[in-house]
Batch of 4 targets.
Target 1
Amino acid sequence: MVRLVWNSEIKMKITCRNSCELYDWITEGCSIKRGVNIDDPNTLSCCNLFLCREYMRNLATQQEPIYEWKTEGDNQIVGDNYKNEENSLYPLQPDRPLQRNDAVWFTSPCKSYGCWIINKSKKKLVVISIHTNAPERGWSENVYKSPYPLHNHNSPLAAASRLAWYVDEEGFGQYVMLINGEIATFTSKKPQNWRILKRRKEDKKS
């Protein structure tokens, strides 16, 4: 028996691969979370970092298109703004421009990672060496007071130039993902009562 299937009956599954801006076409995986099933709709529905590709395209400007993928040669997918490992200047320089004037590019002293620095703190921050002094921690292990990051974000090359070390008004810094110059995701959102929770956690340890 042959059954005709109308177009209205065909529904495309929404997955990380076909719908998320953070999908990396080069590595064919998530540029933030490693080892996740990018073709499983359940992965996307449970992810708090999902960035709808179509929505982000609507926000894109002519100066910095998010994705303008084209095929060259043996079906090699490349992006107009993407540089591979051979011609990349990262971490000494970013591989993508940034659409904001309050950020500067930072390269770690060990030359192993880099990111943008966005400092919104009016306080004078002390330069800290993670090997000699422990920075004041915030509401998460990787949120601390420092004018620049003391730990490597270990992001894939395709996403590394989109990352920034964002220092808030209180002086706490953390990595954020930038899309079109705007902060799209935080490493760890600040809870309203985080100081109370941190104090209780410290009291339990003591």
Target 2
Amino acid sequence: MKQLPAIAALFLLWGCGAATDRPAAKTDGLQGAAGMTPIGGSPRVEQEKEESALPVSVAPCRTDGPLPADVTTAMGADALHTLGQARIEARQPGEAVRILHEALQLRPDNGSIAGDLATALLQCGMVEEGVAQMEAAAGLSPDDPDILANLAQAYVMAGRLKAAGATYEKAIALSPRDGALRNNYGVALMAQGEAEEAEVQIRSALALEPSNPEYLIDLSYVVARMGRLQDAELLLERVLRDHPDNADAWAMKGFVLALEQRMGEAEAACERALQLHPGHRGAAENLEFLRRQAAEKEIGSEE
């Protein structure tokens, strides 16, 4: 099974602003650059949401009732598992839950099936059920770093951040050269307000994959929150030099420029992000905030 992205942790730290031991740069209402939602698509970019295993938004899911017309239990557990995975990819989590439940009844000892069932439950917005099912999957496959990573993400979605951190540490011990694991652990640490530890983990991910734009963007957020705005700008310049059309990098640049009170440049960066990806929620919300602030300032100067 695939690792789930660190979306929920990013929502917590960008949407709410994690505290640090150092004075954090003042955000004054700005949202995080990727505009994440508690249950959503990818770790970094809105445009990746179509590719992610987690849901973009929570819609009613029918998880009970008969199997879909094209599915029968005579297919066997492996075939049902494959069909359930396809339903997850197709954003049909209710059907995926029903199919994978049948597959798991046939193979109750299969951790991969149990983990994919948990993913479908999370995709339906059934977070507590998804956590419980992912815990069961980890019990069946305690040495599978992908399942442990997914359990950590489920804990983040449920707001159980300390449990998430402990689970990430177990996964990293099993797969120490997995950059995504270390980066996502850093994101979870930042959500707990542990900025310095978050920086260590994300830099360790970059040591494994020095040019990974997702890790660089995450690190830029961490150092910006620690007040190191020039460092954040330099990291984003690295991303944009190699990936000039990265909407997330432009959105994060707008966020950092706003913290530097360079409001006109911040607006331009958010506008660029929206040109590249019109559905980029964070860029849209930050741009709206910047324009509202500018309008209020203009009204105040006229009075």
Target 3
Amino acid sequence: MTKLAIFQLVLFFSLTSQMPPVTATPPVEKSATTAETAQEPVFYFPLQITFWNASSGLSRTERIFLRQGDEHPLKIKSVLTDSDNISAEIIKSGGKEKLTYTIAVNLGPKTHPGPVSGKVIIQTDHPKAKTINIPVIGNVLDDIAVTPPMLTIRLKKSNGKGHSVVSISSTNGKKFKVQEAKVALAGVKTDIKTINEGKGHLILVSVTEPDKSKRKPKQTLLYVKVDTPQKMIVIPVTILP
């Protein structure tokens, strides 16, 4: 097994059954008799698509899970986007009691480095949710690939320790240096390992929290300084007890 295979990472995303409610666009008029406990017309997850640390020249896909909320049958009439670099399509539909849909949202390989902004526009036949707008945000890196784009570290109950690894590699075949990797949070350390003859780097992020009373969910950022035109890569880090 190669060194790269040993440190290979996969970021797992889980879909909970409690999907947030959709607000129809345009806003729906509500009568004075509408109860707060009334069923929402449609539920979807996530509320926003994020292409964080995508790579120039490489495509990337995220998914939207959408479900019928009330007793009105839900049919999606169209799925559109407002950007040439973002596309969306239904890849799965069905359901015995409530109709559900899975929509793939794709960021194209020709997206220029820099911020990503747009929206997915879902047209339905539901009278209370005819149009659903889902924001798309993110950023595209130039000649750099980050895997995974975001880190999640789970602490062990026995000793309060946890770690995760992020791979930063060149997509143009050129060597580059990671000059610094830093997390501005107490108890977090980083270690950099160069691989593939300088065309890639592994960053080990280690957390130690011996005090059980302080083991609470935390969010921070990993700042990686590189000697490429990108200069700085920012990677979100979530620490879970």
Target 4
Amino acid sequence: MPLVFKFLLYLISIPIFGLGTKFLMLPSSVEQLTIGSHSTLEGVAPINPALFSAQNKQSNILINRGVWIGDVNIMNIAFNQTLGEKVFHFGVNYSGLTGFEYREEKPTDLPLSYFSSYGISVKSGLSLSANKNQFGLSLSYIKIATEVEETNGFGLNFGYVFNFSSDFKIGVSLENIGKMNELISEEVKLPQRRLSTLSKKVALNNSFSTIYGSIDWGKGKAKNKYFIGNSFNWKNSNLFSGLALYDSNTEASVGFSIKVSTVKVGYGIRFGSQKLGNPYLISLDILLP
């Protein structure tokens, strides 16, 4: 490979690997995209491993597909299985950029080849309940790669929820405690997230609304992030909304989901003050027999 292209690929790899670690912070459901990052938000692939859930003590499979800022493709597949009072979780998260071209020094109509850059995590975990307490633990294998370099590592995730009542909860979670192998070009660190959440369910005649408030406690020089969200439920439909505040930036999100029989379809979109694009997700949640 000509030296000039090695250098160009190296320059490309720096922002891609920066994205690669941050892909662990991307939402893995329509609810997370719209309502926000909350450690009391249940689901097939929640942020808090204490809240792995399966409807009616059956099995659930969740598939998400969407686009993040910078036309980054994101996809998530998750599966939950009830085991008595425990719930087993297995999931795969992917984010990537495609369409990079490798060309010779002389001009040509077609490139010699194409390549992509991506990040992938494979997660397995378990949650359990004891009286008003819920506990969870998960382990992730993480890999990020470009044409030039690749690295991998492992991360641990912990979670806890206390239920004051069926309508009022407090939750905490700690994510990505681990280490990545070093690259030739730079050291790769796992982005940690430390969340504290309060949530309250409010009954409204034939519907109910759940309000969430969270703080993502910044580490080192990183500033705290604040999330406020709401999930409004009426029969088999849900409306989602959320607001995120951090580093003088503001993000607003909206979305919905509709359940028909054993299948739930959802859509969510986020709008930011930085005007770098509008990330969106489409989800399919299937209750297995």
